[in-house]
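Thread: quick sanity check before group meeting

JM: Hey all, I'm pulling together slides for Thursday and realized we never actually wrote out the predicted structure for the chain we discussed last week. Dropping the sequence here so it's in one place. If anyone has concerns about the input, flag it before I start.
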Amino acid sequence: MIAKREIRALLADMESEKVERTVSTNNMDKFAKVVCAFANDLSNKRRPGYLIIGANDNGSLCGLKVTDELCRNLAGLRSDGNILPSPALLVEKISFPEGDVAVVEVQPSKQTPVKYKGTTYIRIGARKGEANDEEIRILQEKSEIKAPTFDSTPCLYSNIDDLDLELFKTDYLPKFVKKPVLTNDKRTIKQQLASLKLFDIKHDCPTVAGILLVGKDTKQILFGSYIQFVEFAGQNRASKVLNERQFSGNLITMLRELDYFIKYTIQKQRPVFITVLREEMRINYPYEAIRELAMNMVMHRNYNTNAPSKFYEYADRIEMDNPGNLFGKVTPDNFPNETDYRNPVIANAMKMLGYVNEFGSGINSVQEILAANKNGYAQFYFQDMSTFKVIVTNADPENKGKNVEINDEIVGIKGRNVGINDEILEYINKNQNVTIYELAFLLKVAPRTIERYINLMRKNGVIERIGARKNGYWKILNKREK
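JM (edit): ok, ran it. Output follows.
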């Protein structure tokens, strides 16, 4: 349970999404909804939430005397059967000179969504509310106790006629089953498909993975299963469109087309003058890095949506914007060193088809390739819970922009006249959970450089780390160094 001095800090923090204050002592329906919301931990902060009974909205105490009956009633929320799966919580009475408080500490659940009387509640900033369909999907995805993944579920209202069986036999099946085994294989086509999780025997229909990988008209069944490519002449979407294309169809066909397109259309090189006697070939975007990011976009995206993946090329950068943020065990703190799969059937198929070489090391390889080509690190953005964004800056000096502008927010390197300290503070002010690695990507410096500045600011009392390295957050104490 949290220490007494930390309760004081929580009472004073009016903006925290992890604290609920109330003077009511008998509104168990309200308390249960709060517990449910804390257990769901939609923002995936992985920190406990606190219901504090006996405190006003402004953080002052109301002079409550906490009884044993109140503590028993609060503890009963854990096991009365109304909140499922049952939450992990502790109840404690804490006394101050101004009065008592009853504190309910609720741990984030590993099995989400958690529901109270059949309804899913979440924290939306400093208040609670009912989760919508998209928020419930996010809770399902981050659950550590997994239900069948979306790509392995039956694609109802489709049938075997929606699959290109000849493509399956000639291009797909031989990648998974050795030729001698296939020669003696007496199974029906449905059984062969089902063995690779492309068909659901029970429902007599293809799975989502089956439609995606070998479907005849994938987009007609899974409406958002395509990539929208647009090339703009300038640095924003208001500029002239130079090229527009849609990559759709089953993944066997689409991935082949996407691979060729990146190699022969996206990657460009030209001679750059170095000296009178020497020229250097400058590549705008290295094929291997952009290909890896595009394949990750296909492999990790959320297909349970009508939104396409976006692949936009501007004069100074490439942006890839994908439905579905970080999945499962992967968080901004452990990305890209942790691995989890939203679409394990698709991921395995892409590896067997040769589009993914080794799981778990792709992003680190991308960063090395981009750095060697003088693009700078790819920049990753996790702020939007429903999308994943990556930006790669053009390495060609003729087009390379100094600033990258997204949603009126400058996220590229800004020039050092304002100082790295001020840039770090600006990002912390926008996102108190920003990691050292994210700051390194944003400011295009080494993580060790960020650590050095962070340590100096902590030593000088400018910022403070609240909580552990993995699950804590930054707090700005003074925006100017002492």
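AS: nice. Residues 251-266 form the longest helix (16 residues). The two ends are 35 Å apart (CA to CA).
JM: adding both to the slides.
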